[in-house]
Amino acid sequence: MTKIDAKILEKATAWLTPVFDAETQAKVQQLIDSNPKELTESFYTDLAFGTGGMRGIMGPGTNRINKYTLGKNTQGLSNYLKKVYPNQALKVAIAYDCRHNSQSLAKVVADVFSANGIKVFLFSDLRPTPELSFAVKYLDCQCGIVLTASHNPPEYNGYKVYWADGGQIVPPQDGEIIAEINQLDFSQVKLDANEDLIEFIDTNVDEAFINASVENADFKAANKDDVTIVFTSLHGTSITMIPEVLKRAGYKNVHIVEEQAKPDGDFPTVESPNPEEPEALKMALELAEKVNADIVIGTDPDSDRLGIAVRDLEGNMILLNGNQTMVVMTDFLLQQWKNAGKINGKQFIGSTIVSTPMMTTLGNAYGVECKIGLTGFKWIAKMIKDFPEMEFIGGGEESFGFMTGDFVRDKDAVTATLLACEITTQAKANGSSFYASLIDMYVAHGFYKEKLISLVKKGIDGAAEIKQTMIDLRENPLTTIDGSKVVKIEDYQTSVMTNMEDGSTSTIDIPKSNVLIYYTADGTKIAARPSGTEPKIKFYFSVNLPLDQKENFAQVETQLDAKIERIVQEMNLN
Q: Cβ of 244: how many Cβ atoms within 10 Å?
């Protein structure tokens, strides 16, 4: 039997006391007796907030999602709320997704808030994450929580924290909350609910959210009956909202993938409920061929990300990546604002440092600033909060997230789904298509092609390997990439941008993050970052070439694909 580290055994033994219920104690004792490896994984560290809040595998232990780790979070958050809002009547909203234990964990979180004298609005059933963001502002809450692990595998769950503006918490606030949590012992968590302070919510908030979604994304496209849509919720929460939003906006030809319509935390029909993965949309694509659909849309379990497939120039259904979807949506919104005469220099769009540089190019073309933040939609929400004198048009990130307007302060697949259908409908009415619109943009602004490679590195050894990879990229930087000289390196961990041609440096005015970005003389951009929510290290590639005319699209795309593949081989990332 593998010997258990003394510190880990000490942490685990603390979970055998009456502070923890009998079931938890029994599970921990079983790990001590017969599974030292799992015991080590469960207790070697404490789950921490990442780019999307706290996310982890469910089970007993400090490095797991369970009633005690979430209870401790909520107790610390309750203490923090009372400090920040002294002598105020505090209110929080709580939502949850389709995952195993989400409903019961949401009730635990509600119990702790109510035990601390805080009013709780708890959704009576599962709801999309963007609706929680909306509800925080709509119900005038100081805080919101959603229980979700987004598109992670079934054994995961998570806990996202939202603030009064409807956006996720950002530094220094997250650090202050973590400090409150770390001061606590599990014995200090108040788990006895004050049921009088817990109010279940549903229809009223649903109606307000649906109306706001339609208001922000229905551009009254003509001939909606001519467009055929296939939609899959991938066993997640969007089934509660998207069909009704599309119906209210006038779409009748909506075909739902029925085998995936029932919420199910096992996600039985897919290997991963992630619309970034082509396999996840396989059933939707098959249905699209049967009904001759114009567009396929699939959303992740908590309905903040969406994947889209559309017909290419030959009529074949192809999947778009998040960057492609984002630029088409952004260009459409910019065009609508321009047509309405609403662009006056006080508007902005938003994106992230690992997303396509084409967003900045688009902003420049319309005379609209493109603000760039760290990975994660909380940074786009922060832009809206930090620049109240400016209007937010829309924005997104490469990981299949988009936000239209500022009524929600997180990526929102509900409203983005309607927007994608409006773009498709308007393009078709004009003798074009979603895909043709994308190619037209490449001709106008340059052909940008992106690729993401994610390397999974699980457990303690994986974390060490990811750490070492980032160290190597910093200490032994690449000097050329595919024959083009590296001219600039941005290190967001040190906040230093280095000009590789003259050695000069400047400060990056964005919060610190473990991200490294290389730029080459020919316009290539490569970013590396460990995921904040999954055991992965991610590499983002962006290359570009001019496209003189639509007819040369396939030829230039082949050149760009070949370039990316050469870089991947050069960096040994296969």
A: 16
The angle that helices 22-34 and 36-43 make with each other, rounded to 10 degrees, is: 130
The pTM is what?
0.95
Closest listed residue to residue 68, CA positions, set 171, 199, 159: 159
Of the candidate CATH numbers 3.40.120.10, 3.30.930.10, 3.30.300.30, 2.60.40.10, the domain formed by 49-201 belongs to 3.40.120.10
Instruction: Report helix, strand or coil for 314.
Output: coil
Q: How far apart are CA 73 and CA 95, in angstroms?
A: 16
CATH of domain 449-570: 3.30.310
454 noted as active-site residue? no
Please tell me which residue in 78, 150, 238, 437 is annotated as part of the active site: 150
Instruction: Transcribe 86-125 into DSSP letters.
Output: TTS--EEEEEE-SSTTHHHHHHHHHHHHHHTT-EEEEESS
Whether 370 and 348 have beta carbons less than 8 Å apart is answered as: yes
Task: Summarize pLDDT for 479-530 with one digit per residue, the tens.
Answer: 999 999 999 999 999 999 999 999 999 999 999 999 999 999 999 999 999 9
| Domain 208-445, classified CATH 3.40.120.10, yes or no | yes
DSSP tag of 235 = T
Contacts of 353 (CB under 8 A, 6+ apart): 372, 373, 374, 375, 490, 492, 510, 515, 517, 527
